[in-house]
Specification:
By secondary structure, this protein is α/β, with parallel strands linked by helices. It has 2 domains: 113 residues, Aspartate Aminotransferase, domain 1; 244 residues, Aspartate Aminotransferase, domain 2. The chain has a 7-stranded mixed beta sheet, with helices on both faces. A 3-stranded antiparallel beta sheet has the order 11-14-13, with no helix packed on it. The chain has a two-stranded parallel sheet with strand order 1-12. Helix 2 packs across helix 10, helix 4 crosses helix 5 and helix 11 runs parallel beside helix 13. The radius of gyration is 21 Å and the shape is globular. The chain starts with 15 loop residues before the first strand and ends with a helix. The structure holds pyridoxal-5'-phosphate. The site of pyridoxal-5'-phosphate has 12 residues, from helix 4.
């Protein structure tokens, strides 16, 4: 099949996704969607409430003792990030965005469009910020009310030190927003120690569900304190939360099938041993990927001390016969999908090792990569 040819969606066998999401999911997660659920029906509300309780349990926070709540919202992860800015930053607020990749830049783009005062602390794409840099910015500008950062910047796979930054943010009395889209469920996140006030994530990343909604785990009192400052109707987290309080449901049509799938995905997460089990499998996948890719001559973009066990950017081979589009097609023809790079200046491609994939899938991918390079006549 050529790239832009029309096609019927009737694949004999799904390709394995080595991407940062949507991901390869289990058959049972996909099967959970073969149901019709009434969004106003009490049996469906049980599913929604169970998802909310389970997410708080994964976060390790409690409604009653810690004052956290989880709000589900229709849309992809970007909608979740935008909903936090639209619901939690007062009219007089100012956000400091810490950016070292495309998702940090996307935050800044949202703030610009919403006409929210903001500043950006940029570091190179292969370097996390230091706590001193953050503290200096906060002390120099008392107008900053919120700090926003991406945990695993999926552009490169770099991990930003969210807990250390959070301690500085907390000490300086500001509110803290963390985009943990590609890390929640796979890496430990300490809400209290890290002073996290708002954390955004998505079902189609490390919790291995399918796309269709996003969720924000937040300090309820802070959301309530911003009443009257919401900047959007559909992205209003406060009214969404109150609707869940009163009616156990979404304000507008929920993605019912996605929620059924996510409930199943959460049961499978728990059966795998929760966070420890999921993190263990992803770390093994990643260790095999690094070892095998380096053995055949690929170089990772990041220094290992900054690299997450989630997604890895590799430099293109130096050989001029290497063409990414051709490489991609040769891998796809072998049933495997990788991800293009997203760096501003460096030529890289990315490989994700999350989703329902295991060490043997990673080994098969590396074999397929070797065959693709041979077919292209590329040497490393
Ligand atoms: C860190 C991060 N933030 C935000 C997003 C945006 O999520 P979505 O594409 O679901 O809108 C992504 C997507 O991969 C991401 O990795």
């Amino acid at each position: 099949m050529k790239m832009n040819e029309p096609y019927e969606i009737c694949w004999h066998r799904d390709k394995t996704l080595f991407t940062p999401g949507p991901l390869t999911t289990s058959l049972s997660v996909k099967q959970a969607m073969l149901r019709d659920a009434g969004s106003w029906h009490y049996e469906f509300h049980v599913v929604v409430n169970s998802i909310r309780d389970r997410l708080l349990a994964i976060a390790g926070v409690d409604r009653h003792t810690d004052g956290y709540e989880v709000v589900l919202l229709q849309g992809s992860g970007t909608f979740g990030v935008e909903s936090v800015f639209a619901s939690c930053v007062p009219m007089s607020g100012k956000v400091l965005v810490i950016s070292n990749g495309a998702y940090g830049e996307r935050m800044s783009a949202m703030l610009k469009l919403m006409r929210i005062d903001h500043d950006v602390l940029r570091t190179p794409e292969n370097e996390p910020p230091t706590v001193e840099e953050v503290e200096n910015r906060l002390q120099a500008d008392p107008g900053i009310t919120h700090v926003a950062v991406v945990h695993c910047e999926t552009t490169t796979g770099i991990l930003n030190p969210i807990h250390e930054i959070g301690e500085v943010v907390q000490r300086n009395g500001r509110q803290y927003i963390v985009d943990a889209m590609s890390s929640f469920g796979a890496l430990p996140i300490h809400f209290q120690r890290g002073g996290i006030d708002f954390l955004i994530s998505s079902p189609n990343k490390c919790l291995e569900g399918v796309p269709g909604f996003t969720y924000v785990i937040l300090r309820r009192a802070l959301l309530e304190a911003n009443r009257g400052h919401q900047r959007s109707l559909s992205l209003d987290l406060l009214h969404q939360m109150e609707y869940f309080d009163q009616k156990n449901q979404f304000r507008y049509t929920p993605p019912t099938h996605t929620l059924l799938a996510f409930h199943q995905a959460l049961l499978e997460f728990e059966a795998e041993g929760g966070l420890a089990g999921r993190e263990g499998r992803y770390r093994r996948n990643h260790a095999v990927l690094m070892e095998e890719m380096e053995r055949i001559g690929f170089r990772p973009y990041l220094e290992s001390k900054y690299q997450s066990p989630i997604i890895t950017a590799f430099y293109f081979p130096g050989d001029s016969r290497f063409e990414f589009q051709k490489f991609y097609r040769l891998l796809s023809d072998q049933g495997m999908i990788i991800y293009p790079g997203k760096l501003t200046e460096t030529e890289c491609f990315r490989i994700g090792n999350i989703g329902r994939i295991f060490e043997h899938d990673i080994r098969q991918l590396v074999q397929a990569i070797k065959r693709a390079l041979d077919q292209m006549g590329v040497s490393l």
